[in-house]
Amino acid sequence: MTEPLSQSVYPVTREEGAETEVILAAIVDNEPGVLARVVGLISARGYNIESLTVAETDVEKHASRITIVTRGTPAKIDQIKLQLGRLVPVRRVIDVTNEADALERELALIKVVGAGEERIESMRLAEIFRARPIDTTHSSFVFEITGARDKINAFIDLMRPLGLKEISRTGVLSIRRGVESD
Amino acid sequence: MSAQTAEQLKQAPPPRAQARPVLKSGADLLLDALEEQGVEVIFGYPGGAVLPIYDALFRRDTIRHVLVRHEQGAVHAAEGYARSTGKAGVVLVTSGPGATNAVTGLADALLDSIPIVCITGQVARPLIGTDAFQECDTVGITRSCTKYNYLVPSAHKLATIVHEAFHIARNGRPGPVVVDIPKDVQFEEALYTARADAQKRNCIVKPPVNSFQIEQIVDLMRHAHRPVIYTGGGVINSGRAASEALRALARETGFPVTSTLMGLGAFPASDPQWLGMLGMHGSFEANSAMHDCDLMIAVGARFDDRVTGRLDAFSPGSKKVHIDIDPSSINKNVRVDFGVVGDCAEVLDALVEEWRRRNAQEDYEFARTRSWRSRINEWRAKKSFGYERAQNAIKPQYAIERLFALTRGRDVYVTTEVGQHQMWAAQHFHFDQPNRWMTSGGLGTMGYGLPAAIGVQAAHPDALVIDIAGDASVQMTMQEMSTAVQHELPVKIFILNNAYLGMVRQWQELLHGGRYSHSYSASLPDFVKLAEAYGGVGIRAETPDELDAKIMEMIEVRRPVLFDCVVTQEENVFPMIPSGAAHNEMLFGGHHVTGDEVSDEGKALV
User: Looking at the whole model, is its pTM more than 0.90?
Assistant: First the structure.
C-alpha cells in the first residue's frame, strides 16, 4: 500500500521547501521598455516584488542594472531567474544572495515630526545610526540614512514612537566585494 | 489607375541592391531585408499605416502576398506556413485594429513556439501617444504575447532590426517577433544594412553538448528496466535532423516512444515501438507507460498540464531526463533528475553516438526490458481508441479513419481546429513524417485550422491539405474561405458536424450534470450552400455508405472544399484522464457517465 496522495489537484504539490528572500541583479540592455518587460514578466507569472531599483550603469555599453528583491521557494526563485534570463534584453541574472561576498545598501529619507524630549531622542538615535538630518524645522527632521535593509528597518522602528511621519526608500542596491566584477 | 498602367508598373525592373549604396525609403528597406532573409510569402492585410509598404510591394514581384480576410487569419496562415516548412512565417498588418486582431495568432505562436515575424504599421512618430486614428500601443499590447518586439525608431535602424527579428524568431526556442514601423519611417530614406552587417544580440544560448552528462544518461538508459521516450513539439521545431536522431535512438535502444499532441509525426506512427499520443485524451498504453516507467526521457516537451494530469501522482517511480533548448522549461512543472539544455537534434545525436560506443564495449542486454515490452503489449491490447460502430450514422472517429485510409500514399498535410475533432484527428489520423500535422496545442485557438491550412497550401501548392474541423470552430475564421478561393489554394475543410460545441458539451456532461448551457448551435449555416456562396465546392455526407465516395470526390476536386460530414451528436472523446486525476485513472469509451466523475477540486481546473 502506498500512502494516500494529496487531494489537491493544484500544481503546487511537491515538497518545495521554505520561502526565502533573495536579491537578484539583472544586467540588461538599456533600451526603451526593458523595465516594462522585467516588471511585466514578474507580475504575469505571479511572482512577488519587494523592491526594485533601476538605472543605467554603463553608458558606453548601454547597460542598466536592475536590482530586485523577491520572495519564494527555492524552486520558484530558480524559475524567476530562468524566466528573467529568457528575456532578450537581459544579459545575465546574478543571485546576489548566493554570493557570499556581495554588498547590499539602501538609502532612505525619513520624516519625523515632534517636539520636546521626543525630538531630542530622535536626533540622538539618528547619531547612533549615522543618519544625517538634511532638512530641519522647529518641529520636524528629515533624516537621510544608508545601510543594509535591516539597519534601516531598525531605525524606522525606533522612529515610530517618536513621530515618524513619512518614509521614502530607494530599494536595494548591490555590488560584489573585491576586485571581481559582475 | 487603369489596369494597363498597373501592369506596366509591375513589369518595371525591380530595384536591385547596387554596389554603391543608395538611399531608399523605409518601405523598400523593409522589403530588401525580407528578400535577403529568403521570404517568399507574406500573409497580410493593408491599411492606412502600412500603405507605403504595400506600395513598395506593388512594384516588385519577388515576394508573394496572400490577402487574408482578418488579421488573426494572417498569423495562423503564417504559422501553418512555418510549421509545414520549418521556415519563419511573415505577417504584414496595419496599426490599431490590424495589430490587435493579430494578437490571438501571436499568443498562439508564442505558446506553440512557432517562428513568426509580424510587421505592424504604426501611426507616424509625431502622432504616437496622441490617441491618433488607428493608434494603439502595439508594443505594449504584444509584449507579453511575443518573444520580443520592436518599435522602429528610424529608417536607419530598420534593416538591422528586421534581420535581428528573424534571428530571434528562428533561434533558441522559436517564437513570434513583432516589428512595429511608424508610417513616417516607411517614407524616410536611409541606407540598407545587409544581414551580415546587422548586429546580432547575444540572446540565444545554445550550449554545447556536455559529454559527461551524456555518458550518465546513457548509463541510466542501459540499466533501465521500464524506459519510455516522451517527445514534444521541440523535436519538430529542431528540424528534420532531430526526427532522424530520435528514430535512430529508438531503433538502437528498442525503447517505446510516445509524443505530445505537438510532437506527432516526429516518430512514425506505423512503427511497432510507437505508443500513440499521451495526455488527457492519449492512449492507455502511452499514459500507463508514463505512469509506470522507471526511466523517462523527455525530449523537447514541457510537461504541460494536459500531459501530466495530477502532478503529485505523475510518474512516481521514474528517473526523469529532460532535454530542452529553453532552460526555464526544465524543473518548471516537474522536477527532473537530469536537465539537459540543448538542441534536441544535437543531444539525441550525442546519445545515439554514446550508445553505439558502449555497444562496442559490451553487449546491451535487450532482455532487460522484455517484461516491460510485454506489459505494454497488454495495455495496447485494450485498444483504448476503440469506439462502437453505428450502422446508419457516421461516427466521427469512423470519418477520420476513412479520411486517413483514403488519403494514404498521398502528399498530405493536416491542420485542425480545437475541440473533439482535434482529439479524434490526433487519435485516428496517423503521421509518419514531421511537419505534416499543424494544430493549436498550447493556446487551443478555435479557428486556427482553416487559415493554417491556407498557409500550408501556399507553401505546398501541389499537396493535399486538409483542415479537420468542427462545426463551431470553423465558423470562427470561416471568412478565410474567401482567401482560399481568391488565391486558388484548394484546401479541404473536413467538418465533423455534430451541431454542438462538442468538447464543451462533453465537459458539461462529465462535470456539470449534463446541463448543456449554451453549447448547442441551433442555427448552423448550410455548409454546402456556404461553400458555393464563397465560390468553393460544398459536399455533404450523412451516411456511412456514401462517405468514401464523397471523400474521394473531395480529394479529386482542385478547388477549396467545405465538406459537411454529419456525425453522431453525442459522441465523447475517450479515453480521458479527468482533470485532477492521475495517468492510471483513465475513463474509457462505453463508460456510463454519472455526472460526478470529477472531484469538486478537479472541476476548478480546465
Answer: yes
